[in-house]
Structure formats: C-alpha cells, structure tokens
Specification:
The complex is a heterotrimer of chains A (280), B (310) and C (304). Chain A has 280 residues and is mostly helical. Chain A has one domain: ABC transporter involved in vitamin B12 uptake, BtuC. Chain A contains 12 helices and no strands. Chain A is globular. Chain B is built from 12 helices and no strands. Chain C has 304 residues and is an alpha/beta fold. Chain C is 29% helix and 21% strand. In chain C, the strands form 3 sheets. Chain C has a 6-stranded mixed beta sheet with strand order 5-6-7-3-8-9, sandwiched between helices. Chain C has a 3-stranded antiparallel beta sheet with strand order 2-1-4. Chain C has a two-stranded antiparallel ribbon with strand order 10-11. In chain C, helix 3 packs across helix 4, helix 3 packs parallel to helix 5 and helix 5 packs parallel to helix 6. Classes of the chains: A mainly alpha (280), B mainly alpha (310), C alpha/beta (304). Chain A: It is found in: Cell membrane; Membrane. Chain A: Pfam families: ABC-3. Chain A: It comes from Streptomyces violascens.
Chain lengths: 280, 310, 304
C-alpha cells in the first residue's frame, strides 16, 4: 500500500513542502543576519501564542500568528538602536515561556481537550493536519516565500552592507521590520509542522548547510529552500516507514545529519589560502 | 492533585499558612530542594552573566530535557539523566574551540540546529516511552511534587560540591572572567578555569531543571544575577543579592504554586522577571535623576546618524 | 581644545582653486563644483559639532578631511550623503541637494570588517553595489540573452580589475584580508561610475604596507578616472602625495585649503592647541611631526 493513498500523509506532504520552502528562504536570511537568536525567541513566543489561543477558546493558529507577528513587529520597532543584550532578551523569553506554561495549564483544566495539546504545540503534529489546514498552511507558506523573494535583493544588500545600502536609499529599517514579520509568520507556520521547540532547527539547519556548500548568495538561497524541502520529504518518508519515529524528530534528524555531513566534508576541503592571523 | 483537597486556601496569615504547607513532607522537601537549587543557580548564574555565557547556559538547559527523557526510557532515575547529559554537554561545549572573533552567523546556525536536534531527541525518547506524555509537561515546565528525601540529599551534595569548587576557584575565575588576557599573563589557568566553570554550569542547570523544568531554567540562572548586577556594581554585594533574590523568588513561587493549579515554572519566571524588571526600571529612573550631561558618550546620540533612518 | 580658533575662516583660501598637484589634469576652471559647502554647520542632539565650513571640491580633486577624534569628520560625509541634515548654511552635491545624486555618489563607510564566516564572495558584494537597491531576485538569464546583464558583468569585472582584486574576488569576503576587503569595497563604491567618492577612514585598521597601497589606489582612481574623492582620514601621511585639498575640523571650526597652506607648523599648532612641526622632505613631501595622537583611537569609532 502506497504512502500516497493515505490522506494524512498527503496533507503532511502538502503542508510540509510549503512550510519547508518558506523556512528555507527565511532561514537563509536569519543565519546571514545573525538573527538565529531571534528565531529562538519567536519559537518561544509561538508556543505561548498557540496555547493562549487555545486557552481563550480560539483557533490555535490565530493565537500563533497573532503572537509571532506582534512580537516580530515589536522587535523590529525596538530595532537595532535599542538592541538589548542577550540577558535581557533571554529574561523576556523565559518569562513568555512561563506564560505559555500558564496557558497550558489553563487550557488543560478549563478546556475540554486532552492534556497533550501542549506536547502537540511544542513538538508538532504534522500527521494530524486536516485537508483544510494543510491547504491553508501551504498557501500561507507560498505567500511568505514569494514575499521573501520580492525583497531578496535589497534585503541582501541591507544585511551584508547596511551602511552603504542606507546611503543608497534602500529602506534598511523598514526592510528589517518586514523581514522580522515574515520570520514571525514563518515561525507560526513551522510550529504547525515541527512544533515551536524544533522550528529553530528547520530554520537554521538548511540555511547553515547551504551557506557551507556555496558562497554565491542567490544560489545559497535556492539551495537552502531546496534542502529544506528535501529534508522535509525525507523526514516524512522516514517516519512513514518507521512509525515509532515522530515526524518532527525524523525531519530534524535528516536536517541535522545533512548539516553534519556538510560540516565534515567542507572542513576537509583544501583551503585555497590560510587566513592571516591578524584579527581583521 | 492530592494536596488540593487538603489545603484550605490562602488565609492571609503567613505563619499559619506556612505551617499548613509544611505539614506535608513533600512540601518540606520541595522547600529544601528549591532553596538548594536557588542558591546554586544564583551563584553559578552570577558568574555566567558576568562571563556572558548565557547562550551556553541556554544550550545546557535544553540538553537536560533529552537527558531526563532518556533516563526515564532506560528506567534509571531522572536525576542521573539530568546530570549525565548536562555535564557531558558542558564538556562538549568546552571542547569546541572558541573562534574568538567572527564566525557568529555560522556558529549560531550550528547552535540552533544542535539545540533543536537535542529537543527532538528528547521528544523521540518520550515517544518511544509510551504513556509518558503527561510527564512531559512536568519535565519542561517544572514540578515540585514528589521530591523525595533522597533527591534532596543528592541535590544538596552536588550543590555543596559545586559551591565548594567555586569557592576554591572563585577569585581567579572572577579575574579571568573580567580580564582574560591580563589573568593569563599573570599565570591564571584561564582555559582550565573555563572548563571547570562549564562543568559547574552543567551541574547547576541539571539541578535547576528539576525544579523549574527544562525550558525555564534560564529564569533561575539568569534573572536573579541580572537583577542583582543591575542593583549594585560591587561583586560581593551583588552575589549576595542574587542569592537572596533567587531564594525569595523560589519560596514565593512554591507558596503560590501550592495554592494554585498552575505549574511552578510559571511562577518562578514571573516573579524573577518581576524582580528583574523592577531592578531595571529602578536603575533607569536613578540614571535619569542625576545630571544628564554626565555621560554623553553613553547616550545613543553619538550613534544616531549611523544609517538608521535615511 | 577651546584655545583653537577657526584659523583664517577658510573662505578666501578655499575659493582659490588649485589645480591638481601633478599630472595633466586641467584646472577645473569654470566647471561647477562637485561638492560645495557654504557656512555649513551640523548639530546633533543639541550639540554643535562644527559650523562655518566653506569648501569647494572640483572634479577629479582629492580632498582629505582631517582632525582630532570625535569632532564629526564622519558626520561631514553623512551630510554630503544626505543622511544627516546640515543645521545651517548651504550644501550642494553635484549641483543638487545632498542625497539626490543617487548613483553619482559612491560611499565607503567606516567599518572594521566583515564577519569572518560570511559566506558571500567578494564579487557578490561588488554586484550588490550595482543592483542591490532593486527589488526581487535577479533572474538566472544567461548573459548572452540580456545586453544589460552583460554590460553589468563587464563593468563588475572591469572595476574589480581596476582595484586589482581579480585574484580574490571569487573568494568569500570573510576570508579576505583587511586590505583585500577594502579594495573590494572600493570597487563596490565605484561600480556605478560615480563622480564623487566619499570614503570614511578607508585606511583605518590596515597595516602600514596596505595603507600605502590602498592610498595609492585611491589616488590613482582619482587621477585616472577623474573621480572626486572626499576622504576622512586619521593620518594624513599615507595620502599626502595625492592631496589637492585639506579640510581640518577642530572643535567648532574648520580650516580648508591646499595642503601646503593648511599643513604648516603655524596653522596646525594653532588648530591642535599643541606644538606641531611640519617638515618638508627633500622629495617635496610634507611630513607632520609631533601630531598629537588622541589616546582613544578605538573609542573614536563609536563616537564619530
């Protein structure tokens, strides 16, 4: 019996492909802009948002998107100028996560649902998506991906070379906020697939791998998206073949393995020239 | 929920309430364990904030989840899993050469991947150990129920050991943390100290995980120390303040959690965050009151023209 | 510093156009000034950085902006870019208000370096200077189908050749040395054929041999390509041979003029408020001796 005859697998494939595509694109810029910590923050926020949505009686996705988008805009507005230190960011996140624990309990005690909702949000339940959810997730993901592509070139400029880009009238600050919003939406999407705790891997691993493999920016961007989609497919297939492996674990295991292999291979590549010792 | 029927609610008489709470052996154990953990976490966390290693602390706390899950799967005590994974993880982090300058984007991608993968491993262990799902929330968000006396003793011994070691290396570690180059020139073994400290950090993370849960360790490690360092710049004083804040936060959280259905991790983070926010606000207010022109270099004015708004 | 008086208030000196020191470059004569400041001043956060600056830079002239740390040398460049408004006076860049000239102005900001792990090639950095402000992604059209794309590639290759970076343009920029990065960034600033090049401490953080080479490169571009250069510099020595014009900014005021007029024992001593001696070597170069180096060399980067 083929995997494709199971609706749940088809739905997972559909949603997963879109989500991985968006995550690969967004992840490339997250890594390039050294904002992986922001991705970490968004994952915490996604958890709290989803559970707040559930606890207050709304759709989980409503809470997810509301929380991540609001947080992304907030981060963008606070912006670089008032860049808080890691300690401040970490303090806020763990408090937000604590709030998530509060909503989890609130939901478990007052809501009608079972106590595994928290686990679902934390670690994802991609095989549990309905057709409607899958189509919506895929559509939103494609929208995110297209939006990223639309701003790619100026965003690249602003990420690599902010001062020159600003001097060339690239709207650096607005682009930064737009990108954070896209990253927030992407985090909300990825939460549905791999869960809020693991989405960081989906954002960071393909992007890190792609940046190891090539140093051409546009090629790396395409590679990152392609890798993410491939890893998603491989992970889903693996979990289908071995049902005791949860799909989010399989996806991340494949992504991590690909990254690890790349790290090993690229490290062995003969360097054209050693970097001078000087601390440029 | 075995305590829920027994307690009569908050009576606004602290003495009676505490007496009532301490009538239960598990609550006494919870207070003992909480105090031990708070002291250790505050002291280690104080050094961690000073050394700007909060990302390492974050990673180690994430590792504690697969540790506990793996231990449960293997049928050994969760405490063993916590310590084995956290201390092991600390040694791995210590073995990774620090690239010093640059390398931030690649490094953070790697760290993020490793963290997510470890959490995924934890989830795999949980999934393989069927029927454990309810316990996941306790692992992640903390629980103060069912702490046995043996556990308290283990926690206390480990904490005493860690604090003893820290007392021995405290001064050179402070020197190395503040000014590594000078310390190295003065024959302080900076590298060895950093390894030892990471192991201590692993131990502290493993301990704190058992109270606050994996995801909220950061609260107990970072926030008291960060708040204390906001309050005073004197090392000894802020160390004491950090310990006091941590213990106070833990006690308040235990009492509140006893009277409410929400997980203790929520209260620990909320109270700790409250203290931290208060400390920051207080300092901000104190900074406004004296002469504004005192430190023009620190105001963002000088930075303003740098590229922000075209 | 308060002892320093705005020496000679510039105007008469500055308006006296000087032909390029060497070479066949024609005196700009009646050509409109590339940069023109009239009594310009800047105020940031209520603090006046400098004022009363008069300056004319002609086509193909090399101008250095000198002065102690923290007086707002970089701010002068940002004023010319239109990123910081001038509080008083008139500022014209290429005959327009600052910031209007678009690609006709190339800019090299003050910076340390790229992240060592940045996996983007030098040539991509240069290419961003060409098209980085356009939306979307560049479509993978083969060059033989797009004349514009071909022209862009040719220009990128040409400008990389010009700065002598061909050997390492395909390497990740994070792996390039400081001098190599600086050459690639100059190529990026040049790629759209600007008429004015604004450089903010391009020699900073380079070692001595690289300083000389990059300074020579900038001087050569200025002469050969007829690009006007305004360069903020910490140390005047590496660029002395190419200088047409000098702006010295001190607390509140500024002096502008030919290097022979400004870089003199008398003027600089008054400007710095400390004894400075200017010597002329046998080959005609100016050597500044005893120039007070501000102790906070690194803190300066955050402030200015």
């Amino acid at each position: 019996m083929s995997a494709f005859s199971h609706p749940f697998f088809l739905h997972a494939l559909l949603a997963g492909t879109g989500i991985a595509f968006a995550a690969g694109l967004v992840g490339y810029f997250l890594v390039l802009r050294a904002q992986v910590f922001t991705g970490d923050a968004l994952s915490h926020v996604a958890f709290t948002g989803a559970l707040a949505g559930l606890a207050l009686g709304y759709d989980l996705r409503l809470g997810l998107f509301a929380a991540t988008l609001a947080f992304a805009i907030l981060m963008g507005l606070v912006g670089k100028r008032g860049r808080a230190d890691d300690v401040a960011i970490g303090s806020v996140f763990s408090w937000i996560l604590g709030l998530g624990a509060f909503f989890l309990t609130l939901y478990a005690t007052h809501g009608a649902a079972d106590g595994t909702a928290g686990v679902g949000v934390l670690f994802g339940s991609i095989f549990g998506l309905s057709a409607g959810q899958a189509w919506l997730a895929a559509a939103v993901a494609v929208g995110i991906g297209l939006a990223v592509l639309a701003v790619t070139r100026p965003l690249l400029f602003a990420s690599v070379d902010e001062a020159v880009a600003a001097a060339r009238r690239v709207p650096v600050r607005i682009l930064g906020i737009v990108f954070l919003v896209l990253a927030g939406a992407c985090a909300a999407e990825a939460t549905q697939a791999v869960g809020s705790l693991l989405l960081l891997g989906l954002l960071a691993a393909p992007a890190g791998t792609a940046q190891r493999l090539t140093d051409r920016p546009y090629r790396a961007l395409a590679l990152s998206a392609g890798l993410a989609v491939t890893e998603m497919w491989a992970g889903l297939a693996l979990s289908y073949a071995a049902p005791q492996l949860p799909p989010s674990f399989s996806i991340l295991a494949v992504a991590t393995a690909a990254y690890a292999v790349t790290l090993g291979v690229v490290r062995n590549r003969p360097r054209t020239r050693l970097r001078p010792v000087q601390a440029w | 929920m075995n305590w829920a029927e027994a307690n009569a609610g908050w009576s606004w008489n602290p003495a009676a309430d505490i007496q009532q709470i301490w009538a239960f052996p598990f609550m006494v154990n919870a207070f003992r364990a909480g105090t031990v953990v708070a002291v250790l976490a505050a002291v280690i966390g104080w050094y961690m904030v000073l050394r700007k290693q909060s990302f390492a602390g974050h990673t180690l706390s994430v590792i504690s989840f697969p540790g506990a899950a793996c231990a449960t799967l293997l049928g050994v005590s969760a405490g063993l899993g916590y310590f084995a994974f956290c201390v092991g993880g600390a040694l791995v982090i210590a073995a990774i050469p620090r690239s010093g300058q640059g390398g931030r984007s690649q490094e953070s991608a790697l760290t993020g991947t490793v963290q997510a993968f470890l959490l995924a491993c934890g989830f795999l262990f949980v999934a393989l150990y069927k029927g454990f799902l309810g316990g996941v929330n306790a692992l992640l968000f903390g629980s103060f129920l069912g702490i046995t006396t043996t556990q308290v003793i283990t926690l206390a011994v480990v904490a005493a050991l860690a604090l003893g070691i820290l007392a021995l290396i405290g001064r050179p570690l402070l020197f190395a943390s503040i000014d590594g180059d000078v310390a190295a020139a003065r024959r302080v073994p900076v590298r060895a100290l950093s390894v030892v400290f990471l192991v201590l950090l692993g131990a502290a993370t493993a301990e704190a995980s058992q109270i606050t849960g994996t995801l909220l360790v950061f609260a107990l490690l970072v926030m008291p120390a960060a708040a204390a360092q906001q309050i005073t710049a004197r090392p000894a004083l802020s160390l004491v303040a950090a310990v006091l804040i941590a213990v106070l936060v833990t006690w308040c959280a235990l009492v509140t959690a006893y009277y409410s259905p929400y997980p203790i991790g929520f209260y620990v983070t909320t109270f700790a965050f409250g203290v931290y926010a208060l400390a920051r606000t207080g300092r901000a207010l104190a900074a406004i009151r004296p002469d504004v022109s005192e430190e023009p270099a620190n105001t963002p004015v000088g930075h303003a023209p740098l590229g922000g708004t075209p | 510093m308060s002892a320093v008086e705005p020496v000679g208030r510039v105007s008469d000196v500055a308006r006296h156009r000087v032909p390029a020191q060497a070479g066949p470059a024609e005196p700009p004569g009646a050509a409109p000034a590339v940069v023109s400041l009239r009594g310009a001043g800047v105020r940031i956060g209520g603090r006046e950085l400098w004022s009363g600056v008069d300056l004319d830079v002609g086509a193909g002239e090399f101008t250095a902006v000198l002065g102690p740390n923290g007086v707002g040398k970089s701010t002068l460049v940002k004023v010319l870019l239109g990123l910081v408004p001038s509080a008083v006076g008139e500022v014209r860049v290429l005959g327009q208000a600052p910031g209007r000239a678009g690609p006709r102005v190339g800019y090299l900001p003050q910076r340390r370096s790229f992240d060592a792990s940045l996996r983007i090639r030098g040539i991509d950095i240069v290419r961003l200077g060409m098209d980085g402000d356009r939306w979307g992604v560049p479509l993978p059209v083969p060059t033989r189908f797009s004349a514009r794309r071909r022209a862009e590639y040719d220009r990128i290759a040409q400008v990389i050749e010009l700065v002598g970076a061909t050997a390492y343009a395909n390497r990740p920029i994070g792996e390039c040395s400081g001098g190599e990065q600086q050459r690639l960034l100059i190529a990026q600033a040049l790629v759209r054929r600007p008429e004015l090049l604004l450089l903010d401490e391009p020699l900073d953080s380079l070692d001595l041999s690289h300083q000389g080479a990059v300074a020579a490169l900038i001087g050569r571009i200025c002469r050969q390509e007829r690009v006007s250069v305004v360069m903020v510099a910490h140390d005047v020595n590496p660029i002395l041979p190419w200088l047409d014009r000098v702006v010295y900014i001190a607390e509140g005021g500024a002096v502008a003029g030919r290097p022979e007029e400004v870089i003199t024992t008398q003027t600089l001593s008054r400007l710095y408020g400390a004894p400075v001696e200017v010597l002329r070597t046998s080959d005609g170069r100016l050597v500044v001796v005893g120039q007070p180096e501000a102790p906070a060399l690194h803190a300066d980067r955050h402030v200015s």
